[in-house]
Amino acid sequence: QVQLVESGGGLVRPGDSLRLSCAASGLTFTSVAMGWFRQAAGKEREFVAAIHWSGRSSFYSDSVKGRFTISRPYATNTVYLQMNSLKPEDTAVYYCATESERSSDLTQQYEYDYWGQGTQVTVSS
Q1: How far apart are CA 23 and CA 65, in angstroms?
Q2: Measured between alpha carbons, how far is 40 from 101 in angstroms, rounded to an integer?
């Protein structure tokens, strides 16, 4: 069965950097889109970033654009989220997700079939 393994979360101070990683196993093929979502306490889960199956296009929410970078080594099921200039409002549980087959709108939760367990990122002074 498909499983996702996440790592990289932790407690950091404002302005610090973190890199989250997520590896998916059990997928039929490696050229699939992968994405990151986050959910802060008391709030709904929201889109953060996604990368097209080809690796040629990426998408970001306005709140993280210019600070976060999503990447995926060619032909792998591993995705990274480099987070720079972290702010307190970035505090949330971060979830990685992937699709069982290619989808259309990568900013939407319903386009993804599998989810990781989540990793906590806390940004506090």
Answers
A1: 23
A2: 28
